[in-house]
């Protein structure tokens, strides 16, 4: 038996809208595109990020609060210049979280409210 991990899927109220944000952010290309399902692929063709339209989608709350929709997962994106990439993410449609738990990490929210982290690797 062979298994190959190919990527993650993010639910959203509008798959195409969220995919457009990540296309701007990551510079990846569209591999599949329909109203309910969009797949982006990295330039090397080895990683994918998919988006699924979910009419009942509820925006997660971060940091978590009892009784609220909790974050189930988040994306980590390594960058060389944290300040420049945070500015670029905001220009693409991201929002910077008020709470920042680490100096070399910036938690942001995509347009559907999924948290993602931009970070600089510490040597």
From TrEMBL:
Pfam families: Glyoxalase_6 (PF18029). PROSITE patterns: VOC. InterPro entries: Glyas_Bleomycin-R_OHBP_Dase, Glyoxalase_6, VOC_core. Residues 4-121 form the VOC domain. Gene3D superfamilies: 2,3-Dihydroxybiphenyl 1,2-Dioxygenase, domain 1. It comes from the Bacteria. This is VOC family protein. It comes from Actinophytocola glycyrrhizae.
């Amino acid at each position: 038996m062979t298994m190959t991990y190919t990527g993650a899927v993010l639910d959203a109220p509008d798959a195409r809208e969220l995919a457009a944000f990540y296309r701007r952010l990551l510079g990846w290309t569209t591999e599949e595109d329909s109203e309910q399902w969009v797949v982006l692929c990295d330039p090397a063709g080895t990683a994918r990020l998919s988006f699924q339209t979910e009419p009942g989608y509820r925006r997660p709350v971060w940091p978590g609060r009892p009784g609220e929709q909790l974050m189930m997962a988040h994306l980590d994106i390594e960058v060389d210049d944290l300040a420049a990439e945070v500015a670029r993410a905001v220009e693409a449609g991201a929002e910077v979280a008020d709470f920042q738990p680490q100096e070399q990490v910036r938690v942001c929210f995509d347009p559907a409210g999924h948290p993602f982290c931009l970070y600089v690797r510490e040597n």
